């Protein structure tokens, strides 16, 4: 059995590794068009901080280990240019050897990831405009930072990635200014969480301009309909779109958000072609349908399942889905969410209640801080629908309790009965989650 | 309606506060025999470290706030000496005014806590032998440490409290030696977790002697059947027993571990007498019966429920119980458990499987470490029965995911499907819990 995998970063390498894990004799060819093996993309902002830490430290493993330890035929600089689903083969350009060749497959995994949306305005193709998406982007940004020492930066867009960059660059003494087209930031968070992020921006003296309509860039000046901004570098992060051109050219069907349409087994409409990761749809458990939420863990999980389903084609398993859990760091704050957002609840016409509490994170002991916990739950039943948290100390892994509760369809009454770990070094005697739940049950 | 509460620390103050919260006009008298209001007992070891931090910093709130803000008639140095369940009154000695008086009640909450087991061997009544249980004990130990600067300490017993003290005292340059009667330490932990604690003791050069049979203490020398030990101070922590003398003298019935027998509503056999906290039994959900596990959170929860049931005597709620969750810090390690222990599983003849994994806690980023996750689950079904973790970084609040899963009767298959928060600053892309679950499903 021979599997060809297009794209070798998160989903692709996971699929390849799983096939070899379950069927040692299987032939697996990974065709990766860049010069980088699988890497931890979410770690890129933090690598900038360390001048002497090569970006290659973000590699999941070395090319040699992928080849020798895992037995995968992993080829860098090999770009697939067409898929022929009838002949079951792909055409590949090897950019290093400057040759084109064909590779046949029994199974194909499409794992091409996504790409940043680009600003198609005058001047935004300049060399000092960056899309912080790949390891190559990271190399470029890092070289600018350490070679040109810019004193300030314009960040266009205010999603997770740019907020993480704001944090990192500010701490590197590169003053950030954020330009956002919308009226607000972080639309998937409730305003009570968002408010804390805005407070932090203000505390740090970082300017956020919303409702900004950019017109062009001229040299170091970004012009908008109302005023000009100037900075030594510009980072644009205004959303992503799945890489699907190759797939759709071959007759592949697209779905939510223009991503590769997959069934619960991660099969596409093309025979024996699976898709995984940032190029594909992701099943959202609470909605009971596919959505599009490109994040590292889901890419890894989907890749692993696609690989497993290829090996076990007579006993395939459904992808169990996601609960839209996400987290990012913002200065001393951790910001995290799981489950449905308020916006999604409104879109679905849900009868929901929102409560939040502000609490300390661990009594009066060093290392503690404060935390806001926000719960979204169904009116009448108390079914937990979503949870968001922001604060110092342990937020991310406390949020996981809510993610677990959402997965298990827990009510706020049940949440209030949890026996959570307590020592004053880790928690107040009533954990913030219990305090929030005890408030919530009064409003069911 | 008048409620008298005997004992005003965790369960007692919680009950009092809840009554006033739900029925502002209710009369609540708290009779506390010591001179201290409710305090965070679990914080006592860590207070030792700070010479200038008064132990009163551990108070949950001030006497004035309890009286004025909460409207509770809280009386210090007032010891109840008899309960008359027929006349529904208690006899009280006010040690400050040296007078005895009677106080009638409609409802009584018995919340007297527990006391340390004592070593009844020659020499162990000396002034340099400490039982680290109350705020007064903490004052004594603290005065010895800062006035006499002992260079070493003998800790008798190796439970959580003594291990926390080992950590604190070692860091204060007071060299600890541990003497343990049993063959092993931490019997409620699996040997794979225990091994990590033992490794840490060895790494720090701290001597643990097991199977030790102490015969007497003479001056600074503790004699055993095999050899002598010498130290500037001795701390004994060999278990606790519930304070029940007053209750049983009044005809009260005792249950598991000699604690006050309570039904699910926290009622005792005496009419209109409830019990809560360290003096009472605690319902263990997984066993479906009462056990005895005196910890801060359960005392607070039981106190709150007892108070609520007194106010709502026609619509009482059952105590939802505990899952035996516990955590303690030991140097750079956090050690945590939830659910049934291996010993309990064996005692109950359960068909269980045990797996564990060693993982990193957050990829290659600063602040991470390693962690051992151990899962206990039912053979055949994969039902999660218990979870234990030890490691650096965020252990306590990760353990809470297992506590949540145990509460919701989750299987290891479900655990593997959780959508846990990921950013390289907080977790590897496969969270340690997912890695453990993915291993576990192979052994169901």
TrEMBL record, chains A, B:
Segments forming domain Pyridine nucleotide-disulphide oxidoreductase dimerisation: 326-427
Record key words, sorted: FAD, Flavoprotein, Oxidoreductase, Redox-active center
UniProt xrefs under Gene3D superfamilies: FAD/NAD(P)-binding domain
Ranges for domain FAD/NAD(P)-binding: 2-303
Any Pfam family: Pyr_redox_2
InterPro entries per the UniProt record, alphabetical: FAD-bd_OxRdtase, FAD/NAD-bd_sf, FAD/NAD-binding_dom, FAD/NAD-linked_Rdtase_dimer_sf, Pyr_nucl-diS_OxRdtase_dimer
Cofactor: FAD
PANTHER family named in the record: NAD(P)H SULFUR OXIDOREDUCTASE (COA-DEPENDENT), PYRIDINE NUCLEOTIDE-DISULFIDE OXIDOREDUCTASE DOMAIN-CONTAINING
Name by which UniProt lists this protein: FAD-dependent oxidoreductase
Naturally occurring in which organism (per UniProt): Geomobilimonas luticola
């Amino acid at each position: 059995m021979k599997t060809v995998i297009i794209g070798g970063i998160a989903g692709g390498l996971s699929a390849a590794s799983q096939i070899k894990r379950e069927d040692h004799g299987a032939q697996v060819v990974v065709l990766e068009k860049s010069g980088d093996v699988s890497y931890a993309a979410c770690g890129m902002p933090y690598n900038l901080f360390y001048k002497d830490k090569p970006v290659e430290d973000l590699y999941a493993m070395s090319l040699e280990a992928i080849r020798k330890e895992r037995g995968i035929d992993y080829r860098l600089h090999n770009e697939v240019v067409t898929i022929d689903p009838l002949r079951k083969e792909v055409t590949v350009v090897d950019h290093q050897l400057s040759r084109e060749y064909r590779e046949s497959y029994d199974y194909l995994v499409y794992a091409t990831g996504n790409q940043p949306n680009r600003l198609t305005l005058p001047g935004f193709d300049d060399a000092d405009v960056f899309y912080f998406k790949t390891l190559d982007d990271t190399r470029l940004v890092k070289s600018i930072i350490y070679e040109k020492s810019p004193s300030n930066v314009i960040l266009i867009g205010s999603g997770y990635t740019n907020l993480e960059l704001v944090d990192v660059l500010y701490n590197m003494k590169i003053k950030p200014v954020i330009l956002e087209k919308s009226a607000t930031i972080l639309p998937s968070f409730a305003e009570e969480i968002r408010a804390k992020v805005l407070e932090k921006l203000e505390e740090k003296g970082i300017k956020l301009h919303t409702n900004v309509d950019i017109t062009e860039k001229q040299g170091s000046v970004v012009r908008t309909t109302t005023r000009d901004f100037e900075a030594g570098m510009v980072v644009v992060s205004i959303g992503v779109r799945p890489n699907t051109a190759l797939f759709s050219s071959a007759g592949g069907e697209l779905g939510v958000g223009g991503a590769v349409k997959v069934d619960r087994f991660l099969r596409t409409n093309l025979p024996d072609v699976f898709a995984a990761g940032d190029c594909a749809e992701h099943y959202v458990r609470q909605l009971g349908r596919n959505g599009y939420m490109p994040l590292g863990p889901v890419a890894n999980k989907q890749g692993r399942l696609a690989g497993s389903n290829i090996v076990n084609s007579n006993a395939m398993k459904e992808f169990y889905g996601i609960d839209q859990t996400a987290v990012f760091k913002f200065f001393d704050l951790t910001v995290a969410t799981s489950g449905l957002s308020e916006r999604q609840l409104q879109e679905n016409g849900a009868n929901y209640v929102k409560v939040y509490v502000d609490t300390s994170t661990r009594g009066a002991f060093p290392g503690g801080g404060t935390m806001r916990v926000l719960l979204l739950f169904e009116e009448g039943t108390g079914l937990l629908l979503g949870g968001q948290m922001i604060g110092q100390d342990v937020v991310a892994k406390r949020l996981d309790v809510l993610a677990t509760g959402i997965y298990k369809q827990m009510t706020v009454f049940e949440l209030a009965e949890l026996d959570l770990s307590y020592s004053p070094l880790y928690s107040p005697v009533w954990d913030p989650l219990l305090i929030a739940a005890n408030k919530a049950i009064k409003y069911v």
